[in-house]
């Protein structure tokens, strides 16, 4: 089994007298900055003027331009949207890094796909929490943490791994466990997971089930409950105790249906297509498409997004959720982005 590190396995001295710039104050940024400060670290926030800036100032941070924050800091954590990192790096980060500084990321995309090529005289590491930023913050406040992956791309000081681990400890991740990875593994598995299973696979499965029932003449409201609403209840059971725990809870009829029909839905052909998706990720084909799509101001992304938001399941869902106020707990509503 791979080694999982906890608080007692980690030396934090290496980060203690360093200044940390958190660049970006969104989902991950606010959580890292607040948790690190409460763990006793010296944190500045780097941002462009706007809504996030106001929020960071209200939270009591010294907020500077990205260039200024980077020049003050020893460790720079880049928590901008992945699509904007390259431009901000080129314009405001690169020339303000000093030899022996460290630059860090919460996702390996831009380093792995060479959109950012860091100077050779800085450490480069990754601390990727395996959960949305608002959970990284909320669990820390509750005395716990969200597990994280850490990895080193470039180690010039000889301390890059220790720095990454101390950072992971600072955001609370070592309370839950920290696992070692590489930029390549984190990037490729993260992209595959969200495309094939968590986001792409799941939304397509839900919609196909919903459409099959409604096209056969069943009520959309009933189809919504069966194919979407109940998903969370099932996933919670799997999260708590694996597939076995879920199957223990459901009726034996449901379990027999799982065994008899599940493999007819997701079969060897599906798996072969999953392998194609993985190949596109590994070869950089997916990255290239996404980078070009952004350069063209997202024509396809926006068109598909509009169409998806008008799907019947979204309209029915909106009406039904109005009748179920318990579904929308305030915090969950804000945790919009599990990426
Ligand atoms: P986000 O969109 O929530 O926040 C981005 C922040 O960057 C905002 O504060 C925004 O104001 C600021 N920003 C945007 N453009 C800027 C610019 N040009 N100059 C200065 N500031 C700018 O982003 P996020 O979801 O927190 O993602 C940050 C990183 O964390 C990404 O690498 C992402 O892959 C990674 N990550 C995110 C999650 C998650 O739960 N959202 C989970 C794991 C890893
Ligand atoms: Mg992920
Ligand atoms: Mg049922
Ligand atoms: Mg059972
Ligand atoms: Mg989004
Ligand atoms: Mg992702």
TrEMBL record:
Record has NADP as a keyword: yes
Group of enzyme by EC: oxidoreductase
Domain called KARI C-terminal knotted: residue spans: 182-327
EC number: 1.1.1.86
Active site, per annotation: 107
Statement: the UniProt record of this protein carries the keyword Cell membrane: no
Cofactor: record remark: Binds 2 magnesium ions per subunit.
Pfam families membership: KARI_C, KARI_N
GO molecular function: isomerase activity; ketol-acid reductoisomerase activity; magnesium ion binding; NADP binding
Matches recorded under SMART domains: CoA_binding
Any GO BP annotation: L-valine biosynthetic process
Reaction it catalyzes: (2R)-2,3-dihydroxy-3-methylbutanoate + NADP(+) = (2S)-2-acetolactate + NADPH + H(+); (2R,3R)-2,3-dihydroxy-3-methylpentanoate + NADP(+) = (S)-2-ethyl-2-hydroxy-3-oxobutanoate + NADPH + H(+)
Binding-site list for Mg(2+) 1: 190, 194
Signal peptide: none
InterPro entries according to UniProt: 6-PGluconate_DH-like_C_sf, CoA-bd, KARI, KARI_C, KARI_N, KARI_prok, NAD(P)-bd_dom_sf
Family, as annotated: Belongs to the ketol-acid reductoisomerase family.
Protein name as annotated: Ketol-acid reductoisomerase (NADP(+))
Native organism taxonomy: Bacteria, Bacillati, Bacillota, Bacilli, Bacillales
Gene label: ilvC
């Amino acid at each position: 089994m791979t080694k999982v590190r906890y608080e007692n396995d980690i030396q934090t001295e290496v980060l203690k007298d360093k200044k940390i710039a958190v660049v970006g104050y969104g989902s991950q940024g606010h959580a890292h900055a607040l948790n690190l400060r409460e763990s006793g670290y010296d944190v500045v926030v780097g941002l462009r003027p706007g809504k996030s800036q106001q929020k960071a100032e209200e939270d009591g941070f010294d907020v500077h331009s990205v260039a200024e924050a980077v020049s003050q800091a020893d460790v720079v954590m880049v928590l901008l949207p992945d699509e904007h990192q390259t431009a901000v790096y080129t314009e405001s980060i690169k020339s303000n890094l000093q030899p022996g500084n460290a630059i860090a990321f919460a996702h390996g995309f831009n380093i792995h796909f060479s959109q950012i090529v860091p100077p050779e005289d800085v450490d480069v590491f990754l601390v990727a929490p395996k959960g949305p930023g608002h959970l990284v913050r909320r669990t820390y406040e509750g005395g716990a943490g969200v597990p994280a992956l850490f990895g080193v791309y470039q180690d010039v000081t000889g301390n890059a791994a220790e720095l990454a681990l101390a950072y992971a400890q600072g955001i609370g991740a070592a309370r839950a466990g920290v696992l070692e990875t590489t930029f390549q593994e984190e990037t490729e598995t993260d992209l595959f997971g969200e495309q094939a299973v968590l986001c792409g696979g799941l939304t397509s499965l839900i919609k196909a089930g919903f459409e099959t029932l409604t096209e056969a003449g069943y009520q959309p409201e009933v189809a919504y409950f069966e194919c979407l609403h109940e998903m969370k209840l099932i996933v919670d059971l799997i999260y708590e105790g694996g597939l076995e725990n879920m199957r223990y809870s459901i009726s034996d009829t449901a379990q027999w249906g799982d065994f008899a029909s599940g493999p007819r839905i997701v079969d060897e052909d599906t798996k072969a297509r999953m392998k194609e998706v993985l190949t596109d990720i590994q070869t950089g084909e997916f990255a290239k498409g996404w980078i070009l799509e952004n350069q063209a101001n997202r024509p396809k992304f926006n068109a598909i997004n509009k169409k998806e938001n008008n799907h019947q399941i979204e309209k029915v869902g909106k009406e039904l959720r109005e009748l179920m106020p318990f579904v929308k707990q305030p915090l969950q509503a804000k945790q919009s982005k599990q990426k």
